[in-house]
Specification:
This protein has one domain. The longest helix has 53 residues. It starts with a helix and ends with a helix. It is globular. Strands 1-2 form a two-stranded antiparallel sheet. By secondary structure, it is mainly α. The protein contains eight helices and two strands.
Length: 250
């Protein structure tokens, strides 16, 4: 890995991951100022950003490079792996409760596992995008993941505080969950860097994993309290914003 590319991956994935801590700040210092409607709208915005980034920065390049068969197989494989992890690893969502195997873990660890399952495909996607050889694609995807991590950090911190954890503990864990992304990014970059024919597979795989997260994790969370119209408006706004950014910066 050339040194300049290595630092590009390090900076991109770390900045995207640490955006979670940025989002946690208002939740910790001004928790009463963040109503559930605003929280759901922002999570919807995050889902829209992720959806646009998945379509334009991952699946579309996979189709262009590898063709429809490889792209379809990669998307299916990525979604299947996340489905299996979601089914067999115990975790707890912000609003809809526990899923996965029935294991007696403390609540905070269930939250951490849930966010790790959520963040690993994002880091992988950024690393694969940088591994494609296009710095602009990597930068756009890192920006997209960073944008969606801000409302995610807000939601993580608020959920932990509502569960009875202190402000400091909520902020610490919200910030640390973003650190899952850099190692996943290095793996994605190394995978396509060492075996170039895997690039379309890697792009499609990351895209499928992110589609699963959007559909199975974020959207149900935002629709669980009867505020789906606000969440849907946020999703559309996020998709449009990311589509424009991808066109302007890609």
């Amino acid at each position: 890995m050339p040194l300049n590319e290595f630092w590009r991956v390090v900076i991109g994935t770390t900045a995207a991951g640490m955006a979670t801590a940025v989002g946690a700040v208002p939740a910790v210092f001004f928790p009463a100022a963040v109503p559930r409607r605003a929280e759901n709208t922002m999570l919807g915005f995050a889902a829209g950003v992720m959806l646009a980034a998945t379509v334009f920065s991952l699946i579309a390049p996979a189709l262009e490079i590898g063709g429809p068969a490889i792209a379809a197989a990669g998307v299916a494989a990525g979604a299947l792996l996340l489905h299996l992890a979601d089914r067999f690893l115990p975790h707890e969502h912000f609003y809809i409760g526990r899923e996965g195997a029935d294991v007696g873990l403390r609540g905070i660890w269930l939250f951490v596992i849930a966010i790790a399952l959520h963040n690993m495909p994002e880091g992988l996607a950024v690393g694969v995008a940088y591994g494609s050889g296009s710095a602009s694609d990597g930068n756009v995807l890192a920006l997209a993941i960073g944008l969606q991590n801000i409302p995610e950090g807000l939601a993580v911190a608020l959920a932990l505080m509502r569960a009875g954890y202190s402000r400091r503990t909520a902020f610490m864990w919200a910030a640390l969950t973003g650190l899952v992304e850099p190692p996943a990014g290095y793996i994605g970059y190394a995978m396509v860097g060492l075996m170039r024919p895997l690039l379309p597979w890697g792009l499609a795989f990351a895209g499928g994993a992110m589609l699963f997260v959007i559909s199975d994790e974020i959207i149900p969370e935002t629709h669980s309290e009867g505020r789906e119209r606000w969440a849907t408006a946020g999703l559309i706004a996020g998709f449009v914003v990311m589509m424009v950014l991808d066109t302007a910066l890609g």
